[in-house]
């Protein structure tokens, strides 16, 4: 699949409004044409992925490129969400990139052992954010080839 010619979605699970806003602004600054969806915690991430509760919608039109997962969110810890995603046959193929402020080596080890496709420490400044976004999207949207049949449709929602 050539992602550059198709619509795709990035799903961000992060409870920090400012972090999510900056990431979205960074995407716009880099002129990446993708649909960034955001959920504030692990429970909503799983609801979104499985089409439960407010995300239950039979119409689906977006394809998920990857998930950006914060570790320290209210409710379910990010590592537990990662383990749940990777234990479900219908979700386990989705690349999950941990996007966190944690520099704890045990977190890094646990995330990779649990199936994370990457571990990114949140950049501390605008230029670092822009550089990280360019590298992240160059890799996932231009270099990596993902199996076409593996991209899951996501529910259409009015909330992003």
Features:
single chain, 160 residues, alpha/beta, Rossmann fold, six-stranded mixed sheet, 5 helices, globular, disordered N terminus, disordered C terminus
Task: Outline the secondary-structure elements.
Elements: E1 9-13, H1 17-29, E2 35-39, H2 42-50, E3 60-69, H3 78-87, E4 96-100, H4 105-113, E5 118-121, H5 126-143, E6 153-155
For this structure, the CATH topology is Rossmann fold
Counting DSSP H or I runs of 4 or more residues, the number of helices is: 5
The Cα radius of gyration reads 15 Å
Which H/E pattern describes the elements?
EHEHEHEHEHE
Number of domains: 1
CATH homologous superfamily designation: Response regulator
Q: Return the structural class.
A: alpha/beta
- Helical content class: 25-40%
Q: How does the overall form come out from the CA principal axes?
A: globular
The total of beta strands comes to 6
CATH architecture classification name: 3-Layer(aba) Sandwich
Biggest pleated-sheet summary: 6 strands, mixed
Uncertain residue ranges? 1-5, 155-160
Strand residue percentage: 15-25%
Average predicted confidence as pLDDT: 85
Gap from first CA to last CA: 25 Å
The CATH C-level class name: Alpha Beta
Q: Nutshell version of this structure?
A:
The protein has helices at residues 17-29, 42-50, 78-87, 105-113, 126-143; strands at 9-13, 35-39, 60-69, 96-100, 118-121, 153-155.
Structure description:
With 160 residues, the chain is an alpha/beta fold. The protein has one domain: 3-Layer(aba) Sandwich (Rossmann fold), CATH 3.40.50. It has five helices and six strands. Strands 1, 2, 3, 4, 5 and 6 form a six-stranded mixed β-sheet that branches. Helix 1 crosses helix 5 and helix 2 packs parallel to helix 3. The radius of gyration is 15 Å and the shape is globular. The N terminus and C terminus are likely disordered.
